[in-house]
Amino acid sequence: MWHLRLWDVQEVAVFLSIALCICHLAGAISIHSPQRSLTRSVQEDVFFSVDVTCNGIPTIQWTFMSGAVSRTIGTWEPGVYTNITVDYSSRVQHYYNGSMGLSDLRLQDAGYYVVTVTDTAGNSKDAGFVLKVNEVIYEDLQYLSVSALALACLAGLLMLTMWLLDKAYRNIKACRRRKQMPENDATELRPL
């Protein structure tokens, strides 16, 4: 038969202390984001929302990656320094919680964005975002209106051509009828 032994208070306290320490070290860096896939249109703004927690002051670095290129957008330590690259300096807004805003989107901005958070001990953690950038809708409407105008002009030209051909056909038919008529008619009118 197995003997059940109850733990005393000291053993429970040691166990909980060790468990909390392990959980704290394992989760030293936390990156929380409500949405990882974003879709915006050209010339709109996008906000990459994150909430970073870690031991000490984190170093936050944002990187852009696409099929052809990988480039750093910026690096900052909240309240210490900010280093945004020249390509993005006029379009990026950085925040203390690690979030980043990017304004005046272009088609080339579509791709994968990675935030890397590094704590003072050198530990780091990454989180990724996918940004899809659509063309502006009014460009599609402009293309549609130009296409409709071109089709309307073509339809008008076809109607004008049909009208001219109908006129020519009637004139030719009338001319042939006149040629077939005899000039002197056998019946003459007699006075009463």
Outline the structure in words.
This protein is of the alpha+beta class. 9% of the residues are buried. 32% of the residues lie in helices and 30% in strands. The protein has a six-stranded mixed sheet, with no helix packed on it.
Q: Key features?
A:
six-stranded mixed β-sheet; 2 helices; alpha+beta; 192 residues; three-stranded antiparallel β-sheet
Label the overall shape. rod-shaped
Averaging pLDDT over every residue, what do you get?
A: 84
Main structural class: alpha+beta
* Tally of DSSP β-strands: 11
Provide the spatial order of strands within the biggest beta sheet: 2-11-10-5-6-7
Q: Tell me roughly what share of residues is in helical segments.
A: 25-40%
Question: Low-confidence spans: pLDDT under 50, at least 5 residues?
Answer: none
Q: Secondary-structure element sequence?
A: HEEEEEEEEEEEH
